[in-house]
Amino acid sequence: MQNADLEQAVEISNDIYWVGSGSKSFLSRNSYLRIFKGSGNVANMLIDPGPSSDLNDLITKTTQVLGDISKINMLFINHQDPDVVGNLPYLCKINPRNVVLATEDTWRLVSLNSPQVTFKAVERFKNFRVSLNTQPSHRLQFIPTPFCHFRGACMLYDLESRILFTGDFMGGIAALGLMATEDNWPGIKAFHQLYMPSNEAIRKAVQKIRELTPAPLMLAPQHGGIIQGELIPEFLSRMEELQVGLDIISSLEDKFPMLISAANEIVVVFKELCDEETSRQVLGYFDPDGSYPALVAMSQDGTVTDIKGEPVEVIEALIKVFLRNVPADRQNILKARMTRILLEHNLPPFDLLLAQQEASADFLLDEN
Ligand SMILES: [Fe+2]
Ligand SMILES: [Fe+2]
């Protein structure tokens, strides 16, 4: 499955298809089509329909599987973000008999922008579970994950396939194929640091996943790779320890202005040591194309205005990029001047710089 052609629908489990988009972009969007077959009614459920910019892709992929997108008759939405619900008005128009499942908090917002359709609040199902009117019956469980990242966010657990559709939770940027590997972790971490509000919210969601019986075989998020096997407990444990959003902001509140000003001084030194073209190109890495904000926000003139990930790691990443791109004969000068800036700002030791100096202090004098 890892090498699947992502221009096509991909069957990830029996009667469950990935019909997502943007697999080559920084922030992929995963939509899933679940077909509940039986001798009686058939339900074709689309999970997280995706943004309107992906509609053509969604039409192509669902038509490959169903023959006609209007055969979709159930929609599940994790929360109300545009990358989740953009296609909802179209889908409800093409089949007004569609039934939408979501939490009440989510629907209150989504319904403002959707035509009249049948809505079923997941809170109304006893114990957040429902059996579909198919023969044989299929069972679904809804698992609210408050503030991961929206108040009304809710996961969907398909008890037959044991696939848990997690929405933004467990999602990641810079996916490297349909299935997640160890290499996906940095992108998952960065995504959560940016979009999840607090470790406390994450812990509650992790706990709910651990309590599921039977345990899920796959975690299928709305962005990035699908997580399975040993990576499930591994990534859940790391997630439990992850400091995100407000945790980061609160713990570094007093150091934050220092980090920003150090980052800006480092940018100035880098510009000084590079030719104009290289410096324009490298600083261009931090100029987001609109599809995803960079972890370092820079203004047009290359001034750092904000740091959105774990700040020390973000500064390290910045330093690594600069060191990689400065002309080889100026690397030591750059190292020396950056180290001086960091020390002057009383910032914590930056492993990267210190490790490369091999216990020699000479570089501090190696400016010219
Ligand atoms: Fe979201
Ligand atoms: Fe999302």
TrEMBL record:
SUPFAM superfamilies assigned: Metallo-hydrolase/oxidoreductase (SSF56281)
Domain Metallo-beta-lactamase: 28-223
Lineage: superkingdom: Bacteria
SMART domains per UniProt: Lactamase_B
This protein's name: Beta-lactamase domain protein
Native source organism of the sequence: Trichlorobacter ammonificans
Organism lineage string: Bacteria, Pseudomonadati, Thermodesulfobacteriota, Desulfuromonadia, Geobacterales
